[in-house]
Amino acid sequence: MVMKSMGTLLLMLALADAKHWSFQPVARPPLPAVKNAAWARQPIDLFILARLEAQSLSPSPEADRTTLIRRLYLDLLGLPPSLAEVDRFLADRRPDAFERLVDDLLASPHYGERWARQWLDAARYADTNGFEKDAPRLMWRYRDWVIDALNRDLPFDQFAIEQLAGDMLPGAGRSQKVATGFHRNTLINDEGGVDQEQFRYEAVVDRTNTTGTVFLGLSLGCAQCHDHKYDPLTQKEYFQLFAFFNNAEEPLLEAPTAEEAAKRQAHEEAVAALERELLLDSAPGREELYERINRQQAGWEKERAKTAKRWTVLQPSRYASQGNAAFALLPDRSLLAGGPSPQADTYVIECEPVEGPITALRLEVLPHPSLPGGGPGRGRILGDGNFVLSEISVKAATVIPGKRWAGAGNSGETAGRRELALELGSASADYSQKNFEVQKAIDGDLESGWSIEAGKPGMNIARAAVFEVKGEAGFAGGARLIFTLVHNYTHEHNIGRLRLSVTGDPQPALATGMAAAVEEALVTPEARRTEQQKQELKKYYRAVAPELAELQHKLAEQRKAAPVVTTAMVLEERERPRPTRIHIRGEYLQEGEEVQPEVPACLPPLPKDALRNRLTLARWLVDPRNPLTARVAANRVWQAWFGRGLVGTPENFGTRGEPPTHPELLDWLASEFMRQGWSLKALHRLIATSATYRQSSAVAPELLRLDPYNTLLARGPRFRVDAEVIRDAVLAASGLLSRKIGGPSVFPPQPEGVSGLSFGAFEWKTAGGEDRYRRGLYTYWKRTNPYAAFITFDAPPGTTACVRRLRANTPLQALTLLNDPAFTEAAQALARRVLRDGPPDRRGRLAFAFRLCLSRPPGAEELEDLAGFVERQWRRFRDQPAESALAAFSAAGARPEGVDPAEAAAWTLLARALFNLDEMITKE
């Protein structure tokens, strides 16, 4: 009875939670009536004003125009306005000057950079894998996709769909596939000896939790181990959501830049031209040479035909990986490994029946663009595409019971069929790495093996190994061959792509280095060869003919010079669904009942006839019937503009999250967001042009007491800007800022020794030239040791989704602004800019420096304080030339001619002081 009552109580609580405001459909509320309707510029203002009037409060007056332009630039571009832009706006007296400015900034390519930073926090973007080694990864193509998508104003629903399931869209192009990098930002553990399947599970957990946080604003992660204690989410529902992501593989996609694509095309054309030259039958002045080559080819064919073997390529019918690698069967009957890539792996491959005697087996290892370095191995950790085959063994299973042919080995009955373990004799390969000879793949020692030295220039190519069968083996009626390939090396050195063949031709059988098609052509009588076979023989012989050695060398060198192209980490759906089970207490090893992909019952259901896959989930998330996604997105946009969301817990819209301060406004924004086609730019314009946003941030003591966190919005926003914006603003003021958009991450200056604090010999190679002054968005982000200045100003480490940066005040922040090398260098540059471009008099220069940093002119009292400061510093430095030079020129480049070191040092210290002002790092 007690248990029954407790169950009833839990059910009642769950039903009550299901009626929570955030689980109810978004309803467009009517606009409220207000007394001071003339104040409102947008419907937004009516909701804000109605609440203020209910509290007997009035909004603040509009901020001055200099404050407004600086505020707007920081919000829309993440950069301060130039002095020319400020002056132009101040001189523009048109009634819609501010609205025009908003439109101009929304059209700026720097808009995408500013708002990409917000999204990359949520996407837990970083340039390294995390965990102990924290190895580098190439993710910047995804970052560039985000910037471009925002600049194009890709509708948010499509923005979400492409990131969650772009690879599954009909006719998905490279851009849609690169977008799936959103869920490749998970951590990767590449330490030796780890269970890769466990960390694949952890990555899927992260994808599930991130989706819940970023799109639904729910703490889904709380249901991984047990039913959610507060929200109507069960553990079973958690793993039903988990199942949507459990069927994804994690390949690398070639994503060349325009420059790389042009170089590749030029390279391919050069290779093709040399290949055509190699196949010429005549050339002016070289007729005798080509006649001799053709005669020698005929002799070569007759000689090689004596030892060539007729190989039968096997058709794999069943294949499995102990480490859960996923195989794709390609049209040429080769198997391509994808998915999880464990430190070591064992493949078991069963092939369709083959008839006749079996005297030798051939294993071809083949390159493929999806493999590290092109393969043929999966050696990803070292990035070489190599492999080590520790051991290969083969069994033959009878298909039709019959008499076993002659052959050595042990036979037995397995699953109703008779099996024979074939004994392998001599082994040969067209290439073996030193100390990794092919014979070691059949020596019974798992500590040795065959490898091919892939990773060195020109070595990531097809290779083959041939294993003779002792005696002659075969089965009447045919036999299925079952291959077991053991990879016992570390660093994921497993074969990436392979093809298996057999021959019944007399021994000896040796690896010739020739493709199966070439050997097939050789054993075919000349009169019966097809044109294709003749061409195969010609191509092969011309590639080895001594008379063409110079051209062959030139072609080989050209092939080696293939340009490296950028890759992107993406998701790709498996053809065969991977089963999903509940994990008891959330533990990887404790599996429970199997579940199918489904969404929580407290939210609208999926369409009945829809496939249960990631694409369906993505479309469901942005379905207008979903009550959460539009609210969550609109709330985060509001948070970025005003420092606090209408819901103060953007990561938790559940029953234990904060209720909205303006629930009707939140629903109106969400409905308007969808009504305007999910346009983020339209939403930004709506907020920017509101009277609410344009209020002064000055606050009277009584209002500060009544509303310290500005939840009622009776004043304009005022809070410290993000870490990256602080550095960008300093670089802009100094004149150093590079406005280049996109590209690989860069290494700006940071304190000496900081990079050495992480594990391993990671070297922070400080950039020179333009890369030294790129925007903070492009700074290389190492998870275990992030850029010091940004962490000091509360940037998240990139390990989990962050939808709300916290803001702290610490003495270390002031010390960073004063002494960090990047800020010191910017201060020296600002001093030089003031002395070079400012007015000739000191007070004119002071006003110029002040405006460069804060946009506004200094007041009279401020000007006096600044003048006194510069005078004191100048007197301090005038008799100390060495100290002056150190303060003024140590980082900013060569000392300019005609500049007094003491004067430059004084202005450098003034710049450092200006950078340290609260107003410099605050949006007023």
Descriptive key words:
7-stranded antiparallel sheet, 6-stranded antiparallel sheet, single chain, 924 residues, 11% strand, 21 strands, alpha+beta, globular, 29 helices
Structural write-up:
Residues 1-13 and 402-416 have low confidence and may be disordered. The longest helix is centred in the first third of the chain and has 21 residues, at 196-216. It contains 29 helices and 21 strands. Strand 5 (326-329) and strand 6 (335-338) form a beta hairpin. The relative contact order is 0.13. Strands 3, 5, 6, 8, 12, 13 and 15 form a 7-stranded antiparallel β-sheet that branches. It has a 6-stranded antiparallel β-sheet with strand order 4-7-14-9-11-10, with no helix packed on it. It has 924 residues and is of the alpha+beta class.
Question: What distance separates the N and C termini?
Answer: 62 Å
- Specify the number of helices: 29
| Rg, alpha carbons | 34 Å
Question: How big a fraction of the residues is strand?
Answer: 5-15%
Shape: globular
Overall pLDDT confidence: 91
Outline the biggest β-sheet.
7 strands, antiparallel
Helix and strand content put the structural class at alpha+beta
Helical content class: 25-40%
Strand count? 21
List unreliable stretches of 5+ residues: 1-13, 402-416
